[in-house]
Amino acid sequence: MKVKVLSRNPDDYVRETKYDIQRVPRNYDPSLHPFEVNREYTRALNATKLERVFAKPFLASLDGHRDGVNCMAKHSTSLSCLLSGSCDGELKIWNLTKRDCVRTLQAHEGFVRGIVVRFCGTSFFTVGDDKTIKQWKMETPMYGEEEEPLNTILGKTVFTGLDHHRQEGVFATCGQQVDIWDEQRSSPIRSFTWGVDSFSSVRFNPVETELLASCASDRSIVLYDMREATPLKKVVMTMRSNTLCWNPMEAYYFTCANEDYNLYTYDMRNLEQPVLVHMDHVSAVLDIDFSPTGKEFVSASFDKTIRIFPKDGGHSREVYHTKRMQHVICVKWSADNKYLLSGSDEMNIRLWKANASEKLGVLTHREREATNYSQKLKEKFQHHPQIKRIARHRHLPKTVFHQSKELRVMREARRRKERNVRKHSKPGSVPVITEREKHVVTVVK
Amino acid sequence: MASARDAPMDSHVENKTESRYWQETHKGEKDDNEKEKNEDQPQQNKSQKSKKRKLDTKLQESKKEKKFVSGKTDPFPGPAPIPKDRVQKFKRKEEKLKSRNKHHKLKRLISQSKEAAKMAQNQAARFDLLLPEDEGFLEGDEGEDTCTISQEDIAEAVDISSSAKYFNLKLSQFGPYRLDYSRTGRHLLLGGKRGHIACLDWQSKQLMCEINVLESVNDVKWLHSESMYAVAQKKWLYIYDSNGIELHCIRKFNDVLRMQFLPYHFLLATVSATSFLQYLDVSVGKEVTAICTKTGRLDVMCQNPYNAIIHLGHANGTVTLWSPNQKEALVKMLCHRGGVRSVSVDKTGTYMVTSGMDKKLKVYDIRAFKPLQSYFLPAGASCLSLSQRGLLSAATGDIVQVYRDVWNTPVTKPYMAHRVRGAVWGLHFCPFEDVLGVGHGDGFTSMLVPGAGEPNFDGLDANPYRSAKQRQEWEVKALLEKIQPELITLDPNKLGEVDKATFEQRHQDRIEALGFDPLAKQKFVPKFKKKGRSSTGSVERRKKQVAHEDQREIIKKTIEQKIRTEKERKEKNHKASDVSRQKSALDRFKK
């Protein structure tokens, strides 16, 4: 007779001293782990609920401006530094880690229209309603030293926007025309006009650094090459675009914030129709900024909310609002991809988390593992109706909620009408026009 | 295996295969063969070809094997191989045929997830090789049946700690006894018919509590951990803690005869003499459902551990399957002529074993609902229990028989047999141990059944050696991932599949949920118009107009349909005529 009976030595399964961690022998045999899918589903459901519980995106409010915040700029090399300009011509530099103002200067008379930090981070430029461009030192002046600009250029007309080249000492302003300036000269090295009376914003392409794009008041977006004497081409839309932002990772793509409540992502090689229309705002979109990864962007709107859109999604994944935040004029995504900054009408700058439920600070290894695991589970079960409902739910201010409902009804009515017209006319005489095609009037080269 | 692959090839061009240490024997054999063959060939030829071969192999080597800095080559290049059966063990889903017309993003996602799944499968299989314990076994000498080996002999042959697992508790006063092992296999709960209840850590033989409820006890069951258990007493269901303190008396559950605990759902399923099947959620203490089965007294019950479906055996020979979500039985199977005495389902949810009053023992494939084997037991089996590794124990009167592998090949002899001192009342294999607990009229017997238990437990699921702190932590985690009773279905993996409900089905569901059809065409109600234009005549005319329009639509559609079918028919005819023309080879002679 040969016999063997299971007999375990407890020493192999129990820790030796109480100062050790517990031993956890594993066996991954699927038959020992029944209901795998159901348990994972339950975990995913719990993770989704917890995500909503911990979604507290608002971090801080930076107050101190005495008028609405009109423009902001990120520091090009320092994460903790933020510059903001207000409607009374005051400019403030903020330390974001301390959450206080480190420097205040009266930059212009009237609005500060644009701020941009030079790529080296040692100085910055501002433009204002007083028809001047000023260059300032980033360092705080010494005790007894006057707060004076390094350089002041007096322009002929009002400037409305400003952007700096990524690598060279060249910057662009816009107003009645788009001007390219050399830092060393007091007159523009190049001026572009295309039968337009005014421009609202100009942006350099961060990848193809010689390219620029600007939004004009005749509802068009104009593209330029800095090396050429004439503009490249322009697209005319049904409504005016306020600002635009290039995708920092995909050189050809830019997104513009439009007055018709939508944002449009264009491929600059083909302006005939936008690649994507991003809908969700219920009032004019005023500003937009891409995340440094180029996967998402944030938009600020006149409807007192900011929304985060995925670059390839038509609807927002997140909406931020507070009771006190008024019309949001400008918005920035921080360079570490973690925070958002919004400046609004009621003189405050607000600091938000880019990922509402993210835990800030250093994560332990186990914490990170757990969050990664739950993230994966959420992804896996995201299409289940129960989970989808919880993950999608957002509380909206009453006005926004009702307005979006109204807009939906209007859109539906328009669609129905079009359908009826098509039904009662000669087949083929009323073509189907997609949402993307609707908003482009012409492309001029 | 290497030789089989290389056999048809010419002997002198040896394809250099990656050498592995377990292939040494094969290689040796092959070399011998080669030698013999080479001896037959002329010497000259051999030398030439051997040179060539050397060159070839060298070239191949240089291609295949990466050299170290020291000039040595890796004797075992590449990742270590994994046995195929192990990989198969961790396979979750059958790979489906690729369907075309998928979006490119989706395609990439699918291929990524497939790769990840494959990697996980391989890793798990690799880890499986490292598991520390092996299962037990019992082999007789030549001509010796294992069923003749007595428990005393086995207990003598094994080590002390194992032999201590064979013991008898003589409890003749309050028997016969029902029993239950906790999920970790550490704790034993005994319930005597005449009210005696004892729970003990049976390996260290430490008594945790012992009480007499002064009432008849029908069944006992551990709840999710060893701190609580449920007792079905004469009238109502009670819950006690491990110190013997009564926690709850649940009067909604009366005349309970048998109980099952679904550990992942935290549900206690009970069946009663009044033919009710009731589910109690023990995490919140609420009754989930009460189902009137309308089949008389229910005292045969088991659960399917794979999908948490409850199996009930009835006096008319049927076995019915129940989930808490449906008031009707999911499945009714006629299994026996005469009543069903006991039912048991194996761990993987594939096989169901039943025994009946007709003295038969039957094995069913519960996924396909097909009978596999049928055995005749002269005494008939009153109790059945299946172990983790698929051993079946059947109690016939006062003899406990253990069978091995009852579903695949017809079994003629039991694997083991043991006679206890009274009629058997309860039977349970201990999880993660080679032990079978038998409750009978004269107390309790714990017998050794080598090869019954799963040798390697999972520490995060059921750990026999867990500390109090670990148990508490496990309890919190288990409660957090408690599966809702709505998810109990015949196929537990249904939730992970793509919902392929057609639009019509979904639409139908929506109509049912809403109570009306949201897409239905509304009846035309003419607008009220002023200045006398809403006279009856004009209203009727407008109505008629709309009706005509609808009619036109329908007519248009039917005409289009007709034209299409006509066209198709013509094409078909055309093709057919083409084919017929091609077919005849004698066309050229026609005139």
From TrEMBL, chain A:
Pfam families: Sof1, WD40. Its main location: nucleus. The keyword rRNA processing applies. Keywords: Nucleus, Repeat, Ribonucleoprotein, Ribosome biogenesis, rRNA processing, Ubl conjugation pathway, WD repeat. It is found in: Nucleus, Nucleolus. Pathway: Protein modification; protein ubiquitination. The keyword Repeat applies. WD repeats lie at residues 62-104, 278-309, 321-362. SUPFAM superfamilies: WD40 repeat-like. GO terms for cellular component: Cul4-RING E3 ubiquitin ligase complex; small-subunit processome. GO terms for molecular function: ubiquitin-like ligase-substrate adaptor activity. GO terms for biological process: female gamete generation; maturation of SSU-rRNA from tricistronic rRNA transcript (SSU-rRNA, 5.8S rRNA, LSU-rRNA). Residues 354-440 form the Sof1-like protein domain. Belongs to the WD repeat DCAF13/WDSOF1 family. PANTHER family: DDB1- AND CUL4-ASSOCIATED FACTOR 13, U3 SMALL NUCLEOLAR RNA U3 SNORNA ASSOCIATED PROTEIN. This is DDB1- and CUL4-associated factor 13. It comes from Mugilogobius chulae.
UniProtKB/TrEMBL annotation, chain B:
Transmembrane segments: none annotated. WD repeats lie at residues 333-374. Its main location: nucleus. Gene3D superfamilies: YVTN repeat-like/Quinoprotein amine dehydrogenase. InterPro entries: BING4_C_dom, WD40/YVTN_repeat-like_dom_sf, WD40_repeat_dom_sf, WD40_rpt, WDR46/Utp7. Scaffold component of the nucleolar structure. Required for localization of DDX21 and NCL to the granular compartment of the nucleolus. Part of the small subunit (SSU) processome, first precursor of the small eukaryotic ribosomal subunit. During the assembly of the SSU processome in the nucleolus, many ribosome biogenesis factors, an RNA chaperone and ribosomal proteins associate with the nascent pre-rRNA and work in concert to generate RNA folding, modifications, rearrangements and cleavage as well as targeted degradation of pre-ribosomal RNA by the RNA exosome. This is WD repeat-containing protein 46. It comes from Mugilogobius chulae (yellowstripe goby).
